[in-house]
Design brief:
Length: 287
């Protein structure tokens, strides 16, 4: 069963092909990371899913129904956009009330308790919020809205390290109480990697990968130790990153670990480690 179904979708802006025959299935109750370099087509895809723009070709369905001017299908989705669309003169609390009118499942109590937790004064006007607090405000709405699908486009824009950590923890906490489909589009891949179950990588308007993060991380590993021994170890293997510090070297190898590798590493006194999602992403999207 899928909640979002995208088939053969192409979107052009003049001569720019922002999305090129994209097929994608989003399953229920998973946290997805939508990853891609600048201009890859992430926002275009999210705008298409939420019917803000229309494809030149292809079909987009939510819960089996076409999204085009379909209020019922679209009411299942909440889209936290990077853009700021809230009226600047209104107060945070007024925006919470306004959201509840459109999304009756909006949990006001939770929104207010989150505001306290993050130190967001709900009596402030939107225009008085700093960039970070503006993201917190939008993030709180997204977490409280209780739609079947929640889309977050760059949700941690301007947040300091503490607030980012708090926000990621809150996503997991929220999801464990109320599993649903969450799609997070972000550039801060390493930070969000523990939150994600599945990664979707877009490159030049095409979906080049859709895999569980666990599976993805098992496709590579790091190995570290004395420089010459590491060089000996990686002979004939595909290396996608390396770091040298004096006589010490760490490399990222693109392959599954196996017993043979483990034995060889042991012989050479090398240590295995986990690859970072960011490293794999760079390798996938670099060329
Ligand atoms: N309204 C528009 N008019 C013209 N070109 C557009 C428009 N929106 C997007 N594009 C182009 O489509 C391509 C995909 O853009 P999109 O905003 O979807 O990328 P993105 O992956 O969200 O990038 P970023 O990470 O930088 O936000 C880019 O080449 C962009 O310039």
């Amino acid at each position: 069963m899928s909640v979002i179904n995208i088939s053969g979708v192409t979107k052009k802006f003049g001569n720019t092909v922002a999305l090129d025959h994209v097929d994608l299935t989003i399953e229920p109750n998973k946290i997805y990371g939508l990853l891609g370099r600048n201009g890859a087509g992430k926002t275009t895809l999210l705008n298409l899913i939420t019917n803000r723009i229309f494809p030149n070709e292809g079909d987009i369905r939510i819960g089996g129904e076409e999204v085009f001017e379909n209020e019922k299908a679209l009411s299942k989705v909440f889209y936290m956009m990077e853009e700021d669309l809230y009226p600047k003169n209104d107060k945070v609390i007024e925006m919470y009330k306004w959201t509840k009118e459109f999304f009756p499942e909006f949990d006001m109590e939770y929104a207010i308790s989150l505001s306290e937790k993050f130190g967001l004064n709900v009596k402030k006007r939107i225009k008085q919020l700093s960039t970070g607090y503006n993201s917190i405000f939008k993030g709180i709405i997204a977490l409280s809205v209780n739609t079947e699908i929640v889309i977050l486009d760059e949700p941690i824009l301007g947040l300091d390290a503490n607030h980012r950590e708090m926000f990621y923890r809150e996503i997991i906490n929220n999801y464990s109480h109320n599993p649903r489909t969450i799609i997070i589009s972000t550039h801060l891949i390493e930070e969000v990697s523990d939150v994600l179950e599945e990664a979707i990588v877009i490159k030049d308007g095409k979906v080049i990968l859709k895999k569980s993060v666990e599976e993805l991380l098992s496709t590579a590993y790091t190995v570290a130790g004395e420089l010459s021994k590491v060089d000996q170890y990686v002979m004939g293997k595909e290396v996608i990153g390396e770091q040298v510090m004096g006589k010490f070297k760490t490399v990222t190898v693109l392959e599954n670990t196996n017993k043979k590798n483990h034995n060889l590493a042991k012989e050479l006194d090398l240590e295995f480690g986990k690859v970072e999602l960011q490293k794999l992403f760079i390798n996938l999207t670099n060329s």
